[in-house]
Amino acid sequence: MSQRTSADSGPLFLFVCTGNFYRSRHAEALFNWHARRTGHPARAFSRGLLTSLVADEPTLISRDTEKRLGELGIPLELTGAAPTQLRREDLERAHRTIALKRDEHYAMMLQSHPEWADRIDYWTVHDIDFAQPTEALPQIEGRILELMKELTGQAGA
Predict the structure, then answer these.
(1) Total domain count, the chain
(2) Domain contains 1
(3) pTM for the complete prediction?
């Protein structure tokens, strides 16, 4: 879901992680699935700050992400086709940008997009080096559910 059409009128959310291979792709697909299921006009896309790190991976999406989305019944078509590098244009078109881990991504944002580093939101979802997918992916799922409740006016419900 990397391109919007004139029919897209809802807010656009951007999820950012390092490689756009694992966490941000899970957040994107999950968000789009919930939005579609509830009829909310918001949509999401995802990008990476350093996609060169996953350039040699044998797959275009983390096997852990693919497996978990399958377990949840969420089609892969709800996430981008391949890891995509974050560009200024992505930040400009998003209504809200969320990087998946402040400790990891703030410095990268300062280096690549310093004017945006303090204008985006940050979560704390560890990468594979600090948390297993069985911990990190459900954490993303919980954050997405909170975000959807916020969008639909059900926060605190």
Answers:
(1) 1
(2) no
(3) 0.90
